[in-house]
Amino acid sequence: MKRKGVLLLLTFICIMALLAACTDKGEANPPQSEEQNTALPQTDRAGNEISIPAHINRIISISPANTEILIELGFADKIIAADEYSKDIKGLPDGIPLFDMMAPDAEQMVALEPDIIYTTGMVMAEGNDPYKPIKDMGICVAYVPASISIEGIYEDILFFAHSLDAEKKGVDLVNSMISKIQEIKEIGSSIENKKTVYFELAESPSLYSFGTGVFLNEMIEIIGAENVLAEYDMWISISEENVIASDPDVIITNVDYIENPVEEIKSRSGWENMKAVKNNDVYYVDNYATSHPNHNIITGLEQMAKAIYPDLYK
Amino acid sequence: MKLKYKITLSIIFSIIVIIAGVGLGSVNVPPSHIISIISNKLFSAPLPAEIQGTTSISIIWKLRLPRSLLAFLVGGAVAVSGSVMQSVLKNPLASSYTLGVSSGASLGAAVVIVTGFNIPFLGFLTLPATGLIFGMVTVFSAVKFASMMDKNLETSTIILVGMVFSLFVNAILTLIMSIARDHLAQLTFWQMGSFSLKDWSSVIILFPIVLISVIILQYFSKELDIMTFGEDQAFTMGVDVHKIKWVLLGLSAGLTGSAIAFVGVIGFIDLIAPHVVRKVFGSSHRTVIPMSMLFGGSFMVICDLIARTIISPSELPVGAITAIIGAPFFAYVYFSGRKGL
Amino acid sequence: MLTLQNVNAGYNGIDVIYNISLSVKEGENLCIIGPNGCGKTTLIKAISGIIPHEGIIKIDGIDINNMKREQVAEKIAVMAQISAVYFSYSIYETVLLGRYLHMKGRTFKEPSLKDKEYTDKCLKAVGLYNIKHKQINTLSGGQLQRVYLARTLVQEPSIILLDEPTNHLDLKHQAELIDFLRDWSKCKGHSVIGVMHDLNLAIKLSDNMLVLDNGNMAAYGNTNKIISSNLLNDVYDMNVTEYMIDSLRQWEAYDSYYNKSKLRKVN
Question: Does A20-29+38-146 carry CATH code 3.40.50.1980?
Answer without folding.
Answer: yes
